[in-house]
Amino acid sequence: MADENGSARAAAKLETMFALLGEEQRKLAEFQRRMNEASTTVESANKMLTATFDGRGELVRFTVNNTKYRTMAPNELADMLLDVVRRGRTQAFGKIDAMAGGDVLPGVNFGDLAAGKVDLNDVVSGLMTSAIDLPGIIRAAEQQGGRTDG
Q1: Is the pTM of this model over 0.70?
Q2: CA nearest neighbour of 35 among 99, 86, 87
């Protein structure tokens, strides 16, 4: 009888863990859908340039709205181009952070990760320590399932 109770508890925990996994997969699919639909548009201060970025922060359209650039010094135009692109990417990555709803790993937000501001060695190290957190998964399953017998 004891083995049957233990097997039933283990099966219930496993079922709860699969339900949690399914919910995380659903959240990830929704996040991906929202990223695919997102866009960010930024203009230069003088409205001469417009840049549009997709949900991943990639430049997808760049428009010169007038001919003011013809009278600009090359360095001035270059600085304006860089400013528009940097501001656009920053805003796009900010939207990614908002969509993600928090850090993807402890201390690592999605925008910084996408912008390349995070040391990849730190990310991999964090993944290795948190990806297979079986005690945490079991605790979460037990909390959702009720009983917490060892």
Answers
A1: no
A2: 99
